[in-house]
Amino acid sequence: MSTTTTETPAADAGVQLTDGFHVLVDALRLNGVQTIYGVVGIPVTDLARIAQASGIRYIGFRREDSAGNAAAAAGFLTKRPGICLTVSAPGFLNGLPSLAAATVNCFPMIQIAGSSQRPLVDLQRGEYEELDQLAAARPFAKAAYRIDRAEDIGRGVARAIRAAVSGRPGGVYLDIPGQVLGETIDVAAAAKTLWRVTDPAPQQVPAPEAVDRALGLLAGAERPLIVLGKGAAYAQSDEQVRAFVEATGIPFLPMSMAKGLLPDDHPQSAAAARSLALSRADVVLLVGARLNWLLGQGEAPEWSPSATFIQADIDATELDSNQPIAAPLVGDIGSVMAALTDRAKPGQITAPAGWRAELDARKDHNAAAMRARLAEDPSPMRFFNALRAVRDVLAGRPDVYLVNEGANSLDITRDVIGMQVPRHRLDSGTWGVMGIGMGYAIAAAVEAGGPVVAIEGDSAFGFSGMEIETICRYKLPVTVVILNNGGIYRGDGVNAASADPAPTVLDPSAHHERLIEAFGGTGYHVTTPGQLTQALGTAVASGQPALIDCVLDPSAGAESGHIGNLNPQPLANPAPIPAPSR
Fold first, then answer.
1. Most buried pick, 56, 332, 444, 459, via CB within 10 A?
2. In which domain, by residue range, is 253 found?
3. Distance between alpha carbon 524 and the CA centroid of its chain, in Å?
4. 368 lies in a domain?
5. How many whole angstroms separate alpha carbon 196 and alpha carbon 158?
6. What CATH number has the domain bearing residue 510?
7. Are residues 168 and 246 in the same domain?
8. Dihedral sign, CA of 271, 275, 279, 280?
């Protein structure tokens, strides 16, 4: 044990005691934890102080959901579980959505929460912040554990780490009642309870016959396609993925957080011909990608009804979740891609020239349409000419981490701004969660140490906007760009019934830049692409906290962005419902 707290009275001279606080910190340090994201209060405030004194960096947030989002993003970026620390009951509940989102997104994260005394909670005696947190967390986490004795802290931390990163990664909840944190234990006995987890995410190699089956399908394909998901980016098996893609010449389609795994301007990228690639592909290799709603569940009309699917995934239970998987490849992405490359016979798999030419023609057509759209210069600005200015700055800074959320802000940014480097794009993910922006940006700055640009819709920014104080307090190199069209989706809605704003309308005269100025950061208010280019270039180069309020036309934007089809449509002229009789 590296830290002790007290000694017993003279009768037990020579016996040293420590407590649960110190045991927990030592268990985390032993397992390589370098940063904790959280919000302190009863009963975990001293835990943060002791962690900080031990050399673990503590990043304190204004709300627990943002701390949890930061921990989840840290897990994605590092392949080690990000740690989120919360207080009991309300604080725990505030962190729970980010824990659930981490599980859905397959990001390794551990939420450690203090909790109230078990004997009082279990009998519902009205304890301070009384809540059965373990029961509440279980449906939303990959695993959930409670530590009831100080001697089990090391075991609990080890189990949480392995659960978070092994197999399909996810969120783990670790409940530690306040009395366990304060419990004393002999230092020598405590030291024996701690261990470093060995190989928490073991390599899983696919069966040779499974690899050969997949290669046979690809060899016979007329229109093969590789879809790269964020699981492929998380795996950090960049060289293995690139080697197979380039050896075969098969076109690839990156999902949003896999952008940059191979550069977006790679000649085999089918991103600019996405609809054609999906609808025409006859054999599809899914690499760390799931056939969920983001890929239309693999169904027509988005996909060809005759498409055959090969799926590489760490978790066999994901296979056949929406469509028959003709060639399952169960294993870690690095091992799967290496096996495909190693077992392919020379010349066995090639992408037919006609298929490549068909996609290239559509890419050229769509690229011309995009160039024309970006060349437009309306005033007030709209999304495309504003994002053209951002693109031009970021094109010379591939080191910048891009965080992106919103509706139109998310969809159009994904299409306009290319990525050249893996794991440098973080967005709202599988659940489409709004409010991830500031937490993800903080984690990227802390874990990578480099510049971060967060492109936010004005509505999305509001979910976590107070964390700009956190960014300023820790002097992080984060620049927030708010695409401010004064509303949710757009700001020109009309309420015909009263003087209240329409449901989608926000304050059209907002000056968000003044918020960061209140905390010592630099604010910019821009109304033209030239002003935006100048402000963004200056802000990124400064390496200091900055916020750019970018004024857009309130009529810019579409309801729900690219997924308006998911919005049920009410009747235009519904029959009136009769008043109930009494």
1. 444
2. 208-360
3. 27
4. no
5. 7
6. 3.40.50.970
7. no
8. negative
pLDDT in tens, the chain (582 residues): 555 444 444 446 677 999 999 999 999 999 999 999 999 999 999 999 999 999 999 999 999 999 999 999 999 999 999 999 999 999 999 999 999 999 999 999 999 999 998 888 988 998 899 999 999 999 999 999 999 999 999 999 999 999 999 999 999 999 999 999 999 999 999 999 999 999 999 999 999 999 999 999 999 999 999 999 999 999 999 999 999 999 999 999 999 999 999 999 999 999 999 999 999 999 999 999 999 999 999 999 999 999 999 999 999 999 999 999 999 999 999 999 999 999 999 999 999 999 999 999 999 999 999 999 999 999 999 999 999 999 999 999 999 999 999 999 999 999 999 999 999 999 999 999 999 999 999 999 999 999 999 999 999 999 999 999 999 999 999 999 999 999 999 999 999 999 999 999 999 899 999 999 999 999 999 999 999 999 999 999 999 999 999 999 999 999 887 888 888 888 988 999 998 877
Closest among 327, 528, 493, 428 to 76, alpha carbons compared = 428
Listed residue (396, 372, 399, 395) closest to 384, CA to CA: 372
| Domain shared by 284 and 386, yes or no | no
Residue 441 covered by a domain: yes
CA distances to 414, 481, 562 from 363, in Å:
16, 29, 19
Any idea what the Cα angle at residue 40 is, between residues 35 and 471, rounded to 5°? 55
The number of beta carbons lying within 10 Å of the beta carbon of residue 567 is 9
Same structural domain, 455 and 420: yes
Match 């003279």 to its residue by tokens.
10
The answer to whether residues 239 and 180 belong to one domain is no
Q: Are residues 341 and 480 in the same domain?
A: no
**How many domains does the chain divide into?**
3
Diameter over CA atoms, the chain: 88
Whole-number Å distance between alpha carbons of 438 and 64: 12
